[in-house]
Every structure is written in C-alpha cells, then in structure tokens.
Amino acid sequence: MNRLTLFIPLILCVALGAFLYSSLGKDPQELPSALIGEPFPAFSLPELSDPQRQVGTADFEGQVVLVNVWATWCFACRIEHVWLNDLAAKGVKIIGLNYKDDRDMALEWLKTRGNPYQFSIFDSRGTLGIDLGVYGAPETYLVDANGIIRHRRVGVVDDRVWDNEFRDLYQQLVAPDAP
Which pLDDT tens digit goes with each residue over 123-153? Predict the structure, then answer.
C-alpha cells in the first residue's frame, strides 16, 4: 500500500475542520433570500378576521410595510409581538402573515396580546409562505411602496434588530428625499 494513501483521511479531516471553523463566525439568522430586490409574490388569500375578504398585494400597494410571518404555535413570536405593537404605535405599517395556524386561536391571540397589523393574511396551508421561502416563524420582510422586497429577517425583530437592520432603510424608503 502506498504511504500517501494513509494521509488521505487526515487531509480530509483537516479540510472539513477548516470549513467548519470558517463557519463559526456567521450569524445563523442571516439567511440569504433570492427575493431581495424582487417583487413580493402575487397572492390571493383570505383575511384572518374576515374569511370572506380576499387580500393580495394590491392591499398594501403604494405603502412601505413590514410583512411579519407569525403563528400562535411560535414561541419566539410571543417575544416579538410586544415590539411589533410598539412599532405599530409609532406609525410603522405592518401586515401580518398568519402561517399554518388555527384561525380561532390566532384571533384570540390578537385579542389578548394586541393587534399591530393593518390586516393579517390567513395562510393556513402555507402557500404564500412557500412562495416567500419561509423557513418558519417569525420572519419579517420590508417591502417598499413599489412592492419590492428590500430586506428579510429570519427570527425575532426587537429594538436591537430594528436599529441595526431595519430603521435606516425603512426611513429612507418612507421619506426618500429626507437628508
């Protein structure tokens, strides 16, 4: 047997170790989205509070909005919800995307915890979630007035995340001519 073949497992272990080590500094919340810079997917789904009313992208056209994916089964959404109520109180327009959830439980959630959403899309089967590439809840998308997705966050949006990732871009989109 050739002596070099004895070193192949060692070389493979070193290469794998180097790859894993290089991944240590990456933020697991920073998941790339192919939709950044692309239009929000077209959809027609019922509104959570009024199943007879179908909503779509036209319902938030011309507005800068956050589209927040949430569900009652999502523990992290409970943490995030307090901050979303604060953002809505400050005038940030938020559209909810209730993802793979029970309608009655979701309505009770909003009644109990407050409703920061202009309206909530009821995506019981996750069809819009699939089009968005949703990994789970919570996820938040910043959509400009032309319906283009400008930013995506997987995980909780809180004051730190808002300040570091959303605030400046949001303000720029809301008032593009401001200094």
Answer: 999 999 999 999 889 999 999 999 999 999 9
* Superfamily covering domain 36-174: Glutaredoxin (3.40.30.10)
- The CA-atom distances, in angstroms, between 130 and each of 125, 126, 146, 159 are 9, 6, 22, 28
Burial of 121 (0-12, 13-18, 19+ CB in 10 A): buried
pLDDT at 29: 46
CB 91 within 8 A of CB 65: no
pLDDT value of residue 177: 63
Name the more confident of 18 and 67.
67
User: Residue 7 in contact with residue 90, Cβ under 8 Å?
Assistant: no
Per the CB < 8 A criterion, the answer to whether 111 and 128 are in contact is no
Helices marked H in the chain: 8-22, 75-89, 103-113, 127-132, 159-161, 167-174
Q: What does the block give as tokens for 40?
A: 């929000």
pTM as predicted: 0.81
Closest to 69 in 3D by CA, of 163, 142, 147 = 142
Rg (CA), the chain: 21
* Domain range list for the chain: 36-174
- Helix residue ranges per DSSP H, 28-68: none
Half-sphere exposure for 166 (CA within 13 Å, toward CB): 25
